[in-house]
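Fold it.
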Amino acid sequence: MRSLALAATFVLAVSCFAYNDDAPQVNTLSPKVAKPGDTLEITGVRLDENKVDEVFLTDHKFDMKMKLLKQEATCLKVRVPPFAKPGRMQLLLLTKGDDPKLLEQPLYVLIEENSTQIGQLKKEPEKQK
């Protein structure tokens, strides 16, 4: 029984080290606070168009697809959708290939309310006649 457990542990350890993980991974996201319509820059590895199909923001109830503006192996530039609701959103990547997967990434962005400031117009001084 002991040799069976030792063999199972050995097989598991070898399979963990032998597995080649080609999944995209993100390292940084900036800015950390954004408004609808803002551009986000994502850096990481294996982010090229052969690996990443789409990028989403999620609150785990609703996934919002972001427009890809630039896609390279180590960098993505995306635009926050104009309909994004305020709150903390997590980054989500859809991979390409025969078996596409949605990968939650450990990065978050805080979406602020898109407020338009309306100011008072300054009156021009009247010219004397």
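The chain is about 15% helix and 45% strand.
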